[in-house]
Amino acid sequence: MIRSALRTLALPSLAAALLSSTIPACANAQAADSTALLLAQLIRANSSNPPGHTQQIADILGPLFRARGFQVDIIPTPDSAKVHFFARLKGNGSKKPLLLAAHADVVGVEREKWSVDPFAGVIKDGAVYGRGAIDFKGGIAVFARAAMLLADRNVPLDRDVIFLAEADEEGAPMNTTWLSRQHWDKMDAEFALNEGGWIIKRDDGRVQYVSISTSDKRVMSVTLTAKGTSTHASMPLPDNALVTVGRALAKLGSYETPIEFTPDSRKYFATLAKTSTGEMARLYTQLLNGTPEQVNAADRMLSRDPLIHSLMRNTIAPVIVAGGFRSNVIPGSAEVTLNVRLIPGSDPAALIGTLEKLFNDPLLTVKMTTALAASSPASPDTSLLYRVLAAESKSQWPEAEVTPYLFQAGTDAAAWRNRGIPVFGIYPYPISTDELRRMHGNDERVSVESLRQGTEMVFRTLKRVAGSSAAR
Questions:
Q1: Quick one: average pLDDT of 297-322?
Q2: Most distant CA pair in the chain: distance in Å?
Q3: Tens digits of per-residue pLDDT, 428-468?
Q4: What are the φ/ψ torsions at residue 76 (nearest 5 degrees)?
Q5: In this structure, what are the phi and psi dihedrals at residue 408, rounded to the nearest 5 degrees?
Q6: Within its chain, how far is the Cα of 402 from the centroid?
Q7: Residues 317, 221 contacting (CB under 8 angstroms)
Q8: Residue 105, Cβ density class (10 Å: 0-12 exposed, 13-18 middle, ≥19 buried)
Q9: How sure is the predictor about 14, in pLDDT bands with cuts at 50, 70 and 90?
Q10: CA-CA distances (angstroms) from residue 450 to 11, 126, 457?
Q11: What is the mean pLDDT of residues 72-85?
Q12: Which residues contact 205 (CB under 8 A, 6 or more apart)?
């Protein structure tokens, strides 16, 4: 019945359901419906970056928060259609605020490869489909609904709860780093919850583990540039720039960076060893505690999973090849852009030197082409927010283990971490490995049931961390 109602609810009815502030404390199904409906509506507001316009997201969220007594601020940027949205529920001020951060922009799509319209907010077979369902409009929906429930249930608060839907996380430059320079007073907090770690389901649907990210990899762009002689294609020369970059890519394809563990990633792999069975448990144990030969053997097997592979090392991915302009002209230059993800503490200059030695080609130059942000300190898992989030995750999914985590990609958490404010990341809904691979891919989706569970878990976390002693 719930699925049928979700499929057929018209937009005016949807808006009325979301604006309702009368959800009783025991109405879990209704709260879950509201989260899924809100996500569907957010997906319909196409905020693909570029251009990354987020004003429509603010237009959806504003009435919902205002109706519940939140103070709403919409911060314009130099790009007028890119806005940052704040909603603040006031507490008694005895403690510093708790902040929920969720980016409102999403990556683009290959429409022809989707089975549904990626911007229709389709709900079918118990799941919400669309670009951003996992990354990170699903997070907006869960964080927003959990914050709204504090107001709906009249929870007394010792600290303000700030909800932020920010622009340009997927594209910069108007992201939270820009926002922190312009409006720090609105985003200052004791700690923050953001995207990051995973709630991973086994094949039977039970949750295997909950990972809460405490740090992110850093992103570095590297350009390989080859120079050669431009001439007629009928007279090829040894210094053909495209051949030069081809040789470099061939070497890169067979090169592997060494394994590096941070303290939190070591805890994560120990959790995988504990929660896995059979051969997989043996491989994770061998990875952490084996001889060099055993570690290499475990690495070869475990690295078949691209997520696991990325968490053990710095990764280097060719993403753009540029060269040539006519079919009968050998170009005088060619370029390859590499996307590099660095484990915290890695030396970018050393990695550039390693690449130069690997290619060993006088016709090729290797250069870092984007400014690399300073490495942010890891957020401590002793923080109140981490401890409560871990406890409520365990309460929601008793069979799961909870672990800190090094996030394999990047987020906008550095805006807080660089100022000494802990940020903890989670995609607040259980997903399978298949659903994880759909993120930034095709037919991205998240289940209505996962949204329900995530909303309940985050609400309880907010209540315990921000609520007064009487509310807990």
A1: 96
A2: 83
A3: 999 999 999 999 999 999 999 999 999 999 999 999 999 99
A4: -75, 160
A5: -75, -15
A6: 18
A7: no
A8: buried
A9: low
A10: 23, 10, 11
A11: 95
A12: none
CB atoms within 10 A of CB 279: 9
Checking if the pLDDT of 8 tops 70, the result is no
pLDDT at 24: 35
Prediction pTM value? 0.89
Mean of the per-residue pLDDT values of the chain: 92
Structure tokens at 385: 């927010």
Tabulate helix, strand, coil % of the chain (nearest 5): 40, 25, 35
Distance (Å, whole) CA 5 – CA 133: 19
Taking residue 237's Cβ as centre, other Cβ atoms within 10 Å add up to: 12
Q: By the 8 A CB rule, do 130 and 40 touch? A: yes
Which tens digits make up the pLDDT trace of 234-259? 999 999 999 999 999 999 999 999 99
Give the span between the Cα atoms of 124 and 461, in whole angstroms: 29
- The tokens of 287 are what? 């990875």
CA distance 242 to 336: 10
The Cα-based distances of 10 to 14, 38, 113, 332, 427 in angstroms read: 6, 13, 27, 58, 28
Please name the residue that has the structure tokens 């604006």: 19
The DSSP symbol for 259 reads P
Give the chain's count of helices (H) and strands (E): 16, 17
**pLDDT score for 206:** 96
- For residues 466 and 158, the answer to whether their CB atoms sit within 8 Å is yes
Whole-number Cα distances in Å, 351 to 249, 333, 343, 365, 399 = 16, 24, 11, 14, 41
Instruction: Extract the tokens encoding 397.
Output: 């999914």
Residue 435, judged by CB atoms within 10 A of its CB (0-12, 13-18, 19+), counts as buried
